């Protein structure tokens, strides 16, 4: 254990400070495709009964019109978050008619590109901006990639905790933004540790060892054939996070520097403002219709595909990067988790408990700067784990030497253990964090217990990835429909849906100015410190 971690643990283990650990927030965003009863992509518009995808705070769509996204409020305890996520699922199933939610990160059989509808948010300038951005994504990456679903885990520690740590480490609040900067740089340091160790999450929670042939759209690959419609790798944990999932040439050179918030923001802004020749050749309009928001490396900063992002809640009309510049980092968003097909809501409570301990470890442990060479090593460790994570012979690179993944993984779990104990002391229902660590330890000792191994075993017995996805989706849909929400809860969701539709209508009524001007204003508002 590093000196820094020891010091910080002792500080938080103090009677007076222990309660701070219970005051951080976490929230989940779960993506899931709407499918028909055969497991095929739903071709219907976003159900009006679920409200407006533009303005609803908890039920929206991601890329494809059929890709739902459920967003929980932020809570102090992950069990509260999962209860809320469960309620959203029950509500959705009650309103989906004979459609259901797909239970796997990778889509089943996909129709042709033309047949995949891009999400629609109405005719307002804001709604069109979201739609045209997605048209740009379709143009740049193809639509199949926009049908992949994941779990995003949002996590923060309370500002009072950062204040306490800053004071104990001699950071004084004389400079106007000293505290805000300390908190921002602490989250950036946490992101660096996440880069070092996130391969562990892919081993423990990856659940996409196979995919349907239709997903690849004829692209070249090195996968093995399991059956007519299914390709796989024998030791893969998460093909979703491999170069077969999210990948693209324009972004391949883009490595936002995570050695300071400033360098992170600067590199993203430069990507948003740097033209990319192949996109420029296509232009922003075709036959008078907008087809992408810009011809730059990124249309907007959210286009940057990353396993983790620093975040700050944005104000109306503000861009994510402006929010970070103006008010600093508020929380982080973990983006590399596969949907767990064995869990109705896509993630288990034990996984959440482990993530809380893992992320606390990343936040408090020492985190030196990452050189470009280090960055390549971390990326390679991650890439090896997603494609060969369960191979007993797999090694990862640490400090210039190769060591078995299992050795390093067991060592990491032991380094996280003191943080799990600390969280359990603060928690009133026993040793929930410690026992989630024991569950993960068992998976390291026996790869057959990992979700990816279990998924592959099920796919082999059914002979098809699509058949497995369909079976899990039917099971989960039935369980949600068998225990609907209480009428009072349902009424609350109905009211949210109604209000969101009213809000969208209001936005459409009060729109002024042309879409062209709206895009121009949005594109020019990228510079930091430029408060409109």
TrEMBL record:
Molecular function (Gene Ontology), one example: glutamate-cysteine ligase activity
Transmembrane segments: 197-216
UniProt keyword Nucleus present: no
Pathway the protein takes part in: Sulfur metabolism; glutathione biosynthesis; glutathione from L-cysteine and L-glutamate: step 1/2
Domain Glutamate--cysteine ligase span(s) in chain numbering: 10-383
Keywords associated with the record: ATP-binding, Glutathione biosynthesis, Ligase, Membrane, Nucleotide-binding, Transmembrane, Transmembrane helix
InterPro entries, per the entry: Gln_synth/guanido_kin_cat_dom, Glu_cys_ligase, Glut_cys_ligase
Catalytic reaction equation(s): L-cysteine + L-glutamate + ATP = gamma-L-glutamyl-L-cysteine + ADP + phosphate + H(+)
EC category name: ligase
Source organism (scientific name): Massilia hydrophila
Family that this chain belongs to: Belongs to the glutamate--cysteine ligase type 1 family. Type 1 subfamily.
EC number(s) given by UniProt: 6.3.2.2
Cell wall biogenesis/degradation recorded as keyword: no
Name this protein carries in UniProt: Glutamate--cysteine ligase
